Amino acid sequence: MKFKEIVYEKQGEITIIKFNRPEVHNCVGPRTHAELISAWTLFKEDDSAKAAIITGVGQQAFCAGGDLKNASGIVSVDPEEIKAHSRGERPGFLGPSRWTDVYKPIIAAVNGLAYAGGLEWACFADIRIAEEHSTFGVTCRRWNIGLADGGTQRLPRIIGMGRAMELILTGRVIDAHEAYRIGLVNEITPRGKSLERSIALAQLICSHPQPAIHTDKEAAVRGFGESLDEGLRIEAECFYKSIMKPETMEGLRRFIERDHPDRDPDGDPKTPGLKKG
């Protein structure tokens, strides 16, 4: 597919997907929806792509949610389509927001407002880096439009049910600092720096062996909300998917032979926060 309403870039092992409708605050219309499905399919199936960053074009908006002026192109009233959505047979209304099996790391570089479906797309990511002027809110509350791209499910998992319910029920907009305080945002950057910081984080992630990253993310996603016994069973299942990989044997060799970069006595640790004794 030729992309028009998103930008799809590769920077080495990092894929960058940008909402590209800055004139309408990067809201998602029918074409954007289709392009997002195509883009995330490319990322998911590209073995050379180790991490993804999602952000918006411009400095005003990450994403303002669905394009309500073209709502009929987003939400079908066809009875069979309604049944298919209700059975979970569609990827989402604003792109593949219902996918839960992308086990590669995803970072959201939030470079402005993230409202309604835009907040839902921020929650699709594993890590959220927000610029200091960013704001977040379930602003669709004003128009009697419900969340349909993961907001009622991912937001409580990220910040807890009480705080999530406050945002969902009131439609209140919060700034980046409050978002950081309640755990919605992992880090705040100056204006214009969220993508740069996200790329740095993605590069760190890409520098690690990948199989255990994928299986640990899978275990965390699949186990969340399950009983402890079931979560531990899922963890063991995922552990055995990666522990026999060649990367594990190489990791053990590096540990035993002390040739990991963090062991360089003359250099700074490559692992953030590591203290060398």
Key words describing this protein structure:
single chain, alpha/beta, 2-enoyl-CoA Hydratase, Chain A, domain 1, Lyase 2-enoyl-coa Hydratase, Chain  A, domain 2, six-stranded mixed β-sheet, four-stranded mixed β-sheet
Provide a quick synopsis of the model.
This protein is of the alpha/beta class and 277 residues long. The protein has helices at residues 30-45, 71-74, 79-86, 117-124, 151-159, 161-170, 176-181, 194-206, 211-223, 228-242, 246-257, and strands spanning 6-11, 14-19, 51-56, 61-63, 106-110, 113-115, 127-131, 135-137, 174-175, 187-189.
- CATH topology name of the largest domain: 2-enoyl-CoA Hydratase, Chain A, domain 1
Instruction: Report the span from N to C terminus.
Output: 53 Å
The first-level CATH class of the largest domain is given as Alpha Beta
Radius of gyration: 20 Å
Shape: globular
Report the order of strands and helices.
Answer: EEHEEHHEEHEEHHEHEHHHH
Strand content: 15-25%
Instruction: Name the CATH homologous superfamily of the largest domain.
Output: 2-enoyl-CoA Hydratase, Chain A, domain 1
Helix content: 40-55%
Mean pLDDT: 93
Secondary-structure blueprint:
Elements: E1 6-11, E2 14-19, H1 30-45, E3 51-56, E4 61-63, H2 71-74, H3 79-86, E5 106-110, E6 113-115, H4 117-124, E7 127-131, E8 135-137, H5 151-159, H6 161-170, E9 174-175, H7 176-181, E10 187-189, H8 194-206, H9 211-223, H10 228-242, H11 246-257
Parallel strand pairs: 2-3, 3-5, 4-6, 5-7, 6-8, 7-10
Antiparallel strand pairs: 1-2, 8-9
Helix pairs in contact: 4-5, 5-6, 9-10
